[in-house]
Design goal:
3 copies of one chain form a homotrimer. By secondary structure, chain A is α/β, with parallel strands linked by helices. Chain A folds into 3 domains: about 140 residues, Aspartate/ornithine carbamoyltransferase (Rossmann fold, 3-Layer(aba) Sandwich), CATH 3.40.50.1370; about 180 residues, Rossmann fold (3-Layer(aba) Sandwich); about 100 residues, no CATH class. In chain A, helix 1 packs across helix 11, helix 3 packs across helix 4 and helix 5 crosses helix 11. Chain A is globular. Chains in contact: A-B, A-C, B-C. At the B-C interface, strand 2 and helix 3 of B face helix 2 and helix 11 of C.
Chain lengths: ~475, ~475, ~475
């Protein structure tokens, strides 16, 4: 099977079988890193880095060179073309006519999807804002797989900034997809976003237990867990004993401890003032029984959350994670460029149900409320139309197809009103029963009453000012 | 014939025959872009970009890699060596000893010529301030040639910023050289500079008709033309009917419409305030009969002057223009590096008369009045001597050999005065008959009376204070 | 013999025999620069430039490409990873797992040593602050060797900024190591640092004569010499005639004149105000008899200290120096990567005695007083322990193993005091006889009395407040 001409924008773009195939090609290449220079000869990769990055870019470029390919790169390009007002679509089409594959990092969430939509060549997302960073996730999974031979049924603790880390977001869904259990151990104030929890339950079929109280979180040697995700493959009784799961989970040991640094560059002002984690993973911390065989992981760079004294510990995996980025990216580049083909296990993903959500294509200027979403940027609105998945009716929830941000609009109407019969041109509260009765293809949403009324809609009896959800 | 060791600083550095040879090699290479990796193996190209640029640099670098060559690049180097006070000549000599060919972009006009003079290896100008950008012009011409099989006799409309666009300036002379007619359609306030019009008439032998009045320019669907250049090859009767040429030209259809963005980064403050073009080339605009078969071109990046809805129109050529930059630059690199040779039609250029203007080498500190000319920069005056072509005697007009900026000095004198006979050491107004009587090799020019008198010259009767041209 | 897996951090990392072997391989490669593309095929060099540089980086990258290798580079990375708080050790380990060899330029002195200690692959120092720039020195030596066939016994004048030029510091020791005599001709205020003079005498065995008076320095055509270094190989009588050496040295002619620009970017504020050299090496200056056969050298870039009119003079060597950077760096890369092996003359260095100084590993927070030393930077103190060579006992002098900065601590104590017997826990002045009696392995140093007392030490009778060296 060929992966040629495919793009990797989110980790979901690859099935479990395909990811395993990347791993098995990486295994082969890792055995002879310097003897692969015939694989991509004559091919050109372009690195487009709109945000500073050294490690990720150098890793991709080293991988392409190890394959015998060429690299052209544009680093920190915020100041150049964008200053001239160029759109991502134009940039994508043009560099897509120069090179055979594009690797892009960009601060706008959803930007990699836009580039993939327009480039005409395969695109790899090397980080789009706080959204995803799927190749980091591949390195993480590959490391777990290599060290534990499987991912299914393992218990992985995520520690630190679970709110802003894009590597964390990609990793959560990947772990769920492969049937791992997740212990959420956030720095207080940097908990995992609600829409990720929801997606886990809806699309991956597992259960999430929330820690009822905060007390006790800071007991020495105890993980500051606030939630547990248990896949359908795990013993169900755990989920039936709310409140004690947390201790149970720890007693049987943690398979991997994934530490992250606070993504201070994405903090709001208030967060910048208030959040201060003093938890340091050091020798002392790792003395706990539950960490006896734990893989200590970190996407790097680290700041103070992971002590240098751990480096010499055989449980430390973070430099191996980084080094494995080379064979993983080599395998991925070779496959997407069509320079190598691999056998792919064809069976469907077990732990992930592909939901075909109805699509809301907007109209009346409903836009994604995420200010760093690619779809709301001045240069991009000239050609991009907002588009949302209707992921839930109660409450009515839309998810932007670009940045995957979810939101709940307040008012709705039906496009199915009759010209001339203005009494049918009415709007309703989104939390009224109308959300379920209007057909998706007729749905119109508004963020405020004034927006609805500006379009000529009148309030129905389900849009009353005194009701919850009022303007 | 070999083009090895030649440089491309202005589009005039290549004869028509040589340009056609570049095109025919580009044709061959375009058929197998990924099978040319043996052409420049072992050769090194250096990109020196003193101004931000993504597209042009990536295009050159991709081309070099497609040829199997290597690339070293220095991007946005304003902050490094120049900060240490290094001159272009030193930089040129040094990198010329590292690499086999230099591609340079620099904000100073004439900088590419200086680099070519000192490097010892071939140099390609990738844009020197507002002066020239000859490889963009090659892509433009190549696109017209591919789509229309010829350039001679075509009618090309140039739309937008005709004042600051360096791509426009290179293109105008190239079109004239190949016998095309040009319709000038500037954004008001951004008309093509006078010295370009003059050069067209003097050196390319055609005629320029200026639109007498501005009225009517903004009729819907009508190009805002203010001048027409008609080559000697076009039916002469057109030129005999002043005033109606403009309509006639349009009735028979426009072969190509070359749209440009306002080069706001080069605007003066007043221009920044006042100029505001609302003309947008969109589906509606292109409905006019005269555009039925028009190639819609743009050097990109675009801002708002060209609507995205045109992208899907078969007349849109701008992404093809960009893509054709690869085979064009491959052919050019291979030829200048001597890695390929081609047959070149030997006959002289038909539409361009090579004028051997006398040279004025200055003295008495006459310098180019263009503040972004390379010859007046502090680091360069240590070794560069100003040098000018005397392109006209009435009025006396000098053209800088570096930036090609033309200017009319106010006062002149003859170096042929006799020591001891101070009555012959006199200066005159440049617009007096003396301009024609002083031999070019004796000519001395001054920009002011005080400058002349500081050098010991006294006013002649043709330098009176009350006369026009006074200090 | 193989140089594979060796690093080049300071010029002393290579013996004279090894340097000569680099030269002889460079000779071979220089004869066919463009036919070496099989030497390093499949190898990757990474350029890590934390300070702007164009020339040095391009020279390394061109050399690697000429060898058929690949290059990945991170330029001006101050703003990226370091902003995220990453340490040099982490960066070194990670990129060391991507590439086969690292070339680093960094503003912190000693940074290249840290990278070499952690990378796991060979590291080449391309300039670490004001410390060293050993490959520039190799180019300098190679040029002298090529033009004069030997370095031993030559007379080399160093002119300009001898205080901040890292190329100067590397060069001084290299010249001494090969038995050359050095004439120090500093711009007043930019004299060579004392610790370099001391090291010359102690470790290279020669003699340094200091010019007694400043008068006469500015006689036209006379070098502004203030010190002469005479190697053990030179006629001893010179050293016996203090005061007239300076004139004698000049009368017999100078073999090379090494001119440097003022390193203004490293000046203190006061230096920036006061230092102003008006000495320009131009045709007039070089008319002196002593310069008849002098090689005029400069590491470039130049500012105003070396006139362009000298460029055409056959004595000018500076563009040759730059061009020779290619074969020298090719040879060095090929050797350190193990792609080539060479015969190395095994005899020990004649002019340099490798002194095995005792090591002081600190304790009680004694840190290097050099504010740009790598060992005192916030990101590095998390894992680096200060370490010093005890290079002298009278006065007690420590030399940082990272930046090689020397300093004289004020107070000392012995770690050999007996628990419970506090009368032995005393500190002394470093200039008392105790400095010689405390065994190096027991030595403790303090920079102030309060520091000593904070650690529980009491003053001995050799720590009196009135004595010299008091707090």
């Amino acid at each position: 099977m060929t992966l040629a001409n495919r793009s990797l924008v989110t980790i979901d773009d690859l099935s479990n079988g395909e990811i395993e195939s990347v791993f098995s090609l990486a295994d082969k290449m890792a055995g002879a890193l310097d003897r692969q220079t015939d694989v991509c000869q004559g091919k050109i990769m372009v690195s487009l880095f709109f945000e500073p990055s050294t490690r990720t870019r150098l890793s991709f470029e080293a991988a392409m060179h190890r394959l015998g390919g060429s690299v052209i790169s544009a680093v920190d390009i915020g100041a150049t073309s964008l200053a001239k007002g160029e759109s991502l679509a134009d940039m994508a089409k043009i560099v897509g006519s120069y090179a055979d594959i594009i690797v892009i990092r960009h601060p706008w969430e959803g930007s990699a999807k836009v580039v993939a939509d327009y480039a005409g060549v395969p695109v790899i997302n090397a980080g789009d804002g706080g959204h995803q960073h799927p190749t980091q996730t591949l390195c993480d999974l590959y490391t777990i797989q290599k060290e534990r031979q499987t991912i299914r049924g393992l218990k992985i603790a995520l520690l630190g900034d679970l709110k802003y880390g894009r590597t964390i977001h990609s990793l959560i869904f990947a772990l769920a997809k492969f049937g791992a259990n997740i212990l959420f151990c956030p720095t207080p104030g940097l908990e995992v976003p609600q829409n990720i929890i929801k997606k886990l339950v809806t699309e991956y079929g597992g259960e999430v237990e929330i820690q009822p109280a905060v007390e006790g979180k800071k007991r020495a040697g105890v993980l500051p867990m606030d939630a547990v995700y248990i896949t359908p493959s795990s013993p169900h009784q755990l989920a039936l004993m709310p409140g004690i799961n947390f201790d149970l989970e720890l007693k049987t040991g943690v398979d991997a401890l994934y530490v992250t640094r606070p993504q201070k560059e994405r903090f709001t002002y208030d967060e910048g003032q208030g959040i201060n984690s003093s938890l340091v993973v050091n020798k002392e911390f790792l003395k706990g029984k539950e960490f006896k065989k734990t893989l200590v992981m970190h996407p790097l760079p680290r700041v103070d959350e992971l002590a240098y004294e751990v480096d010499a510990d055989p449980r430390s995996m973070y430099f191996k994670q980084a080094a494995r980025g080379i064979p993983i990216r080599m395998a991925l580049l070779a496959l997407l460029l069509g320079s190598r083909e691999v056998a792919v296990r064809e069976e469907p993903d077990f732990f992930r149900s592909k939901v075909n959500y109805p699509i809301y294509k907007g109209g009346y200027e409903v836009t994604c409320p995420n200010p760093v979403c690619v779809s709301v940027q001045g240069t991009e609105t000239k050609y991009l139309k907002p588009e949302f998945k209707i992921v839930s009716l109660e409450p009515l929830t839309l998810r932007c197809v670009y940045c995957e941000h979810g939101f709940e609009p307040k008012y709705i109407a039906s496009a199915d009103w009759h010209e001339g019969r203005l009494d049918t041109k009415k709007y309703h509260r989104a939390d009224s029963h109308w959300a379920r009765t209007i057909k998706p293809e007729n749905l119109i949403v508004f963020n405020s009453k004034s927006e609805a009324e500006a379009q000529g809609f009148k309030p129905s009896r389900y849009a009353g000012a005194g009701h919850p959800g009022g303007d």
